[in-house]
Amino acid sequence: MTIHPWLKHSDLNAMSEAVYRKGAPLSNCWAFIDSTARLICRPSQDQRLYFSGHKRLHVLKYQSLMCPNGLICQLDGPYPGRRHDAGILRESQLYEKLEALAMDKEFVIYGDPAYPLRPLLKKPHGGAALTAIQQEFSSSMSAVRQAIEWGFRKVI
């Protein structure tokens, strides 16, 4: 990811406020990360690289970072379908670029459970014995992060 010249701390603040106004419990979340798998024909070579055990199909994967205003500020890919979201995050070096952008660690992004929990990357609480507060947090964040799914339909 190039640190986009148009993406400034004031923009991150405005986007965080927009996410919070939509019902997110986080007041500093400015974007959402996810990956999507797009079906391809079975390759004649390297079939195992493109086979997604999760989807049970041959796919190409893409990773996106979407802002609440509908802009996709980062789109990486394609990656072989076998790659896990956490591996794509590592390979894309997106997290390192986010660290450079949010120098004071004030702003975070939010992803699904497939992503690793990091200081600048939040995800839903996991496990079977969640408290009511944890359940409410995950439910509220899930509702506001739905926008990233709509973004994939626009471009891929």
From TrEMBL:
Keywords associated with the record: Metal-binding
GO terms for MF: metal ion binding
Lineage per the UniProt record: Eukaryota, Metazoa, Ecdysozoa, Arthropoda, Chelicerata
All residue ranges annotated as the DDE Tnp4 domain in the record: 33-154
Gene source species: Rhipicephalus sanguineus (Brown dog tick)
Taxonomy, superkingdom: Eukaryota
Co-factor requirement: a divalent metal cation
Protein name, UniProt field: DDE Tnp4 domain-containing protein
Pfam families assigned: DDE_Tnp_4
InterPro entries: HARBI1_dom
